């Protein structure tokens, strides 16, 4: 989770830095205010579109990773459940067998005592 937050933070920092650089460059350029404002607006729109695209890419990657992790977890949980069930069945059969042997031995001893 923190890796995702770091990536988002770095992305936001880069976009903010780029936006600030563009705005400062345009403000100090020798053009009319109206033309400068128009360029700033266009660049801001471009940066907004880039941010939306990056957000979409990052969002898709996160969804894919979540899906992969989720399916891996489900598969692992299923494997663990099968292993536990197999172990339970194995030991249950052994216990039933041992119990049957003990019951037969006890019955034989009781018959001998009669």
TrEMBL record:
What Gene3D superfamilies is this protein classified in? Apolipoprotein
Signal peptide interval? none
Fetch the SUPFAM superfamilies from UniProt.
Ribosome recycling factor, RRF (SSF55194)
Q: What is this protein called?
A: Gas vesicle protein
Q: Which organism is it from?
A: Chryseobacterium daecheongense
